[in-house]
Write a structure and sequence with these properties.
mainly alpha
Length: 144
């Protein structure tokens, strides 16, 4: 009898693991590329909030309100769509991989621009120093 109970328990356990709770498509579905943009913007705002929280306050930016206004969605629509997209973990991971790649590409672009500006500034300083040193004539003191 114990063997039967164990076998039945195992069958229920495996059956419950294989049953997939499918999340229904939301009525107001946000297109996947738009959802990706929303998640990207949220990542940037979260990074800004962590790096310089006063900057958001100074500019009166509430990250959630900003996203809702920019994409003309509400919180319920966002939550339903996020839940829907996250139910397919493989596709959701691909979305985040694309977001991370996008952030890394933009970081490289910004770093390259900063580096270029820094080198330009360094060259201007070097040129200024050369001009100053050329204008100065060596002074000869006559002793008599």
């Amino acid at each position: 009898m114990k063997k039967v109970a164990v076998i039945v328990s195992l069958i229920f356990l495996f059956a419950s693991c294989t049953v997939k709770n499918e999340i229904k498509k939301p009525e107001k579905l946000i297109e996947q590329d738009v959802m990706e943009n929303i998640l990207y913007d949220l990542a940037l705002l979260q990074a800004l909030k962590g790096y310089s929280p006063m900057e958001l306050q100074k500019n009166s930016v509430n990250p959630k309100s900003y996203i809702y206004q920019k994409y003309k969605i509400d919180s319920i629509q966002f939550v339903e769509n996020n839940k829907y997209y996250s139910s397919n973990i493989e596709e959701y991971k691909l979305m985040y991989d694309r977001i991370i790649a996008r952030i890394e590409k933009e970081k490289k672009d910004v770093d390259a621009k900063i580096n270029k500006d820094f080198k330009k500034k360094q060259q201007q300083i070097a040129d200024s120093l050369k001009k100053v040193s050329k204008k100065k004539k060596p002074t000869v003191l006559a002793r008599g």
